[in-house]
Amino acid sequence: MKKIGELFGNVKIPRLRKLFRLMKLTVLFLLISVGCVFANKSYSQNKTLTLHMENTTVKDVLSEIEGQSEFRIMYSGKFIDVERKVSVNMEAQKIEQVLSSLFAGTDVSYTVKDRFIVLVTPELLEEGTFGVFQERSVSGKVTDTGGQPLPGVTVVVKGTTQGTVTNADGDYTLSRIPEDAVLVFSFVGMRTQEVVVGDQTLINVSMEEETIGLEEVVAVGYGTIKRNKVTTPISSVDTERIKTQKTNSLDRSLEGQIAGLSVKQTTGSPGGGSVMSIRGASSIGASSQPLVVIDGIPVQGGFGKEQSALTLLNQADIKSIDVLKGVSATAIYGSRGANGVILVTTESAAEGKTEFAFSASAGIDRMMGREKLDLMNAEEFSQWRIENVQEYEDFYGVPYFNDPDEEKLFYDIYNNPGESTDWYDVMTRVAAKQEYNMNVTHAMKSFSGFFSLGYLDHQGIINETGFERISMRANMAYEPNNAIKVGLNINPTIRTWDGEIGGDRGSIYGSAFMSTPLDGPYIDNGPWERDNSNYYDGEYDLDIWSPGTFSNVNALHAVENTINTTRNINLFFQPSLQITPIHGLVLLTRYNGRIENQNKEYFRPSTVSSVYNPPPQAASGYHQTNNHRSWQWENIVSYDFILKDHSISAMGGYTMERYNDYSVRLNGSQYPNNAVHTINAATEQSGSSSTSQWSMMSYLLRLNYDYQAKYLFTASLRRDGCSRFGEENRWGYFPSISLGWNISKESFFPESSWITNLKIRGDYGTSGNNAIGNYTWIPTLAANNYTLGGQIVNGKRISSIGNASLGWERSKEFDVGLDLILFGGRVNFAFDYYNKITKDMLWGVTLPRSSGFSSIQDNIGEIRNRGAEFQINSTNIKNSNFTWNMDFNISFNRNKVLNLGNVDRILTGARNYSITVPGQPMAMFYGWESLGILNTWDDVHNNATFPTSVPGTPHYANHGGGDIIDDNDKIIIGNPHPAFTGGFNNTFKYKNFDLNIAMSFAHDFDVWCQLEEDVLNLDGVFNVLTEVKERWRSPEKPGNGRIAATFHVTNIDRWENSDWVANTSFIKGQNITLGYSLNNVRFCNALRLYMSAQNVFILTNFRYGNPDANLQGANALQRNFYNYDYPLATTMMFGVDIKF
């Protein structure tokens, strides 16, 4: 559409000529007046123009004005000479100065109303008056069916651009409306209504809600489809809601949002990722993570820093998220679809819309109270150490000390413990968080673009830790005509992690809370002075020590002086070309490129000790660089057409992709000083490098058919060829089929005021999993030295044996579901039952020693996941002032290992605490069943025990027979799989206020509390839980039956047993957000103020921190493993969102 309007052309009928001119001129001025309604501040008063044009026409000058601005200029070429030659030289002038100069010496006058400009002459004005035909002003109020005012409703005169929007009270006014006009009322989520004006001057409208979701378009692989035609379970996420939560990572915002989607945090550190799974874990050796597709690009996680590719995204850039769970949807991704697919679409510009948005938020993080272990203070620790010596001497009848000086030092210290050190207070802080985002959407007739810039700075609650992210995005499209569309998406992201913290006793965090409370981080904090001055640096006590304990690292000194920084630069770029030669036929070619560089610098100075080893130690460090390059080239053809009541959509494509990774690590040790950290400054240097690559080629087909949107059919087929597999099984086929029946569209279905739509559906198909190493099917070589001719020479040896028949891991799935919409869209209900069997799982099978190799990668066994999902979205209350929307979902999944081929069981994890065996769910907890404490010598003699058992040591059940307890007595002692999981979200709106409460829950699952090996370490070398005061002391003082005697040095209590397993459930307050919104305020179109809290509460019987943590990452065979790790923080944020 041209912005310059030739509105007053020649009229052929003389009698009507004057009337038509007057009507057109009147409409013109009405358009100008209505335009002012949309403007909060006059555009013409602020916009300046710079023009340097020589010997050109007036028409060209007017076109240049429009090109530099948003002005619309209207005139009649009959009355105004726009071919007149002029020269214009102006710098930063307002529109009035430009027009006055341009038409100086002529009879042309102008009217400027914000962005609308009309050029007129006296001759035109003399041809008539504005009162020749009847016009009127129309006003009214727009409400919903409950009588609540609806602000922001668009009211336009049909067939024109004349219109307005309702104010905060739902009121509107339109002036100079012809009596034959038709007003069109439209609003998102409401049915559009048309009203004939006639002789009415007051028109009130009550708008009805549309049937939610029926016409909504959802993303599927390589295309979109209307929700009422979907034949497989696809869940969509409310992206507007999660944008307000301000989490560091999108994956954390998805927890509890989708039925069947599990999200577990692997760490509470800023910038840390999560482990996700859809409908349970279905692989023992390959990844169980869902495939993430961002704007059509399948994205893998990067370099182990994040478990999910969703951590790459800025939430402010997201337009939609669709989760594909059914095999009919996931099979189109073939060998990567077995674990489900998460489709993310980022923002783009809407045609004819220009908008600027800015958001800012700031807040604090504070460690959740339940994350703090109940450890002994200095007085309690000292009392325990003294009692421990006395109990030892009473039981064994011999002195504890052989050296009188050592005994004197011991009692001098523990009888005078002095001030206690709370290592939580030392190591943690109230941390600041701030985030800023700005974006611009701009669309003209042929060009549209979305441009964004985001910055996040998140300090960690552990000192000297933090995360920073700078993200940019440009999504652009150019459409010179209706047949061609050229696109380019660019998304660079820069991320930095500082002070990474591990999750075991050897980590800085773990060692801090095992440290004695008698010693502190600074020299004057300890209750004694040590003679060895090498352990001080003038301020810090460089090791934490007390008599009878090990030397431990000073955690505060370590985090403040250890360099541990990771910087990651990631770039996505996606050029595309789409051609539509005829209606319905679309040809798309798209290139998806990714470049990722990551650099890590680590340096531990000589003053930083390690567990058991006091300083000084030789300084050490390393520099590591990882580089990733990948590309995908997709060529897709789709054709949609309708033949009467038959709708057909076909899609076919061909894709190629290649992935390359290269890493270099340089190590340095024995640094002469702590000042220079470069590798070449180290006395000892070493290095290594690695490179790997893999590629895949695919063909894909899909056919959608429906008859009157009543009978639905979808079929797809994908053929993948992947270099990760042997030549015998390199190509895999992944077909699927699904059917749907919209019963409510049948003539026999009774008309109902409460059933809006009823659909049943089912699908069956095969998908795959190729997430294994790149070279497991071929033998690999390693360096090896040989003796040849009496000399040692360098050579090679076969380090692993290949399997040329290695093939795909396949999942066959059946799903049946029901979609029900009630009360005109007030209630949406979805139910699904599924049964998925994964076979030919990828696993390293143990080989006999005679083979010379430890294992070979092979396809073995079957695992079944079956269950049910329920999801309901409802509008519970909606009246004149108050609205309550609710989302609830719950999932039941049952996992079972059907067989493992020739393997009888799989043991993994620390001390083999996890077992996978046929007939049971995968990754069950494995160990001895604790029966309490052996109380007397009779208990020891009358039960099967360990050879070192004495009264006060653990009593384990004898399941294997015999007189002693050994590995044959181990049994399954816990189940990490919850009985059910889900989420519960409520949104309340009262006038301009809104409140959202998001919760997640899980019921009846077990957690492996690995940290109890340390916090219940009874050797007296580490600080321990106050529960140790309830230990066994004597047959007359048996304690709580869980804590063994602390004076026995048998270590039996530190062996894997059922006391380490905690059965639990939880309800977690994910997010609470309170907001206040205003529309059409003086300086902007929309303003929203809010405060938001994350990780608000956890209601649980779990005895430690976050029961939902999974610190073993994406390893499906080591689940619910709880150890020392970065604690969970409660975040409080305050923010503002502004749209201009």
From TrEMBL:
<dbReference type="InterPro" id="IPR012910">
    <property type="entry name" value="Plug_dom"/>
</dbReference>
<keyword id="KW-0812">Transmembrane</keyword>
<dbReference type="Pfam" id="PF07715">
    <property type="entry name" value="Plug"/>
</dbReference>
<comment type="similarity">
    <text>Belongs to the TonB-dependent receptor family.</text>
</comment>
<dbReference type="InterPro" id="IPR008969">
    <property type="entry name" value="CarboxyPept-like_regulatory"/>
</dbReference>
<keyword id="KW-1134">Transmembrane beta strand</keyword>
<dbReference type="InterPro" id="IPR023996">
    <property type="entry name" value="TonB-dep_OMP_SusC/RagA"/>
</dbReference>
<dbReference type="InterPro" id="IPR037066">
    <property type="entry name" value="Plug_dom_sf"/>
</dbReference>
<protein>
    <submittedName>
        <fullName>TonB-linked outer membrane protein, SusC/RagA family</fullName>
    </submittedName>
</protein>
<dbReference type="Pfam" id="PF07660">
    <property type="entry name" value="STN"/>
</dbReference>
<dbReference type="InterPro" id="IPR039426">
    <property type="entry name" value="TonB-dep_rcpt-like"/>
</dbReference>
<feature type="domain" description="Secretin/TonB short N-terminal">
    <location>
        <begin position="71"/>
        <end position="122"/>
    </location>
</feature>
<dbReference type="Pfam" id="PF13715">
    <property type="entry name" value="CarbopepD_reg_2"/>
</dbReference>
<dbReference type="InterPro" id="IPR036942">
    <property type="entry name" value="Beta-barrel_TonB_sf"/>
</dbReference>
<keyword id="KW-0472">Membrane</keyword>
<dbReference type="InterPro" id="IPR011662">
    <property type="entry name" value="Secretin/TonB_short_N"/>
</dbReference>
<dbReference type="InterPro" id="IPR023997">
    <property type="entry name" value="TonB-dep_OMP_SusC/RagA_CS"/>
</dbReference>
<keyword id="KW-0813">Transport</keyword>
<keyword id="KW-0998">Cell outer membrane</keyword>
<dbReference type="GO" id="GO:0009279">
    <property type="term" value="C:cell outer membrane"/>
</dbReference>
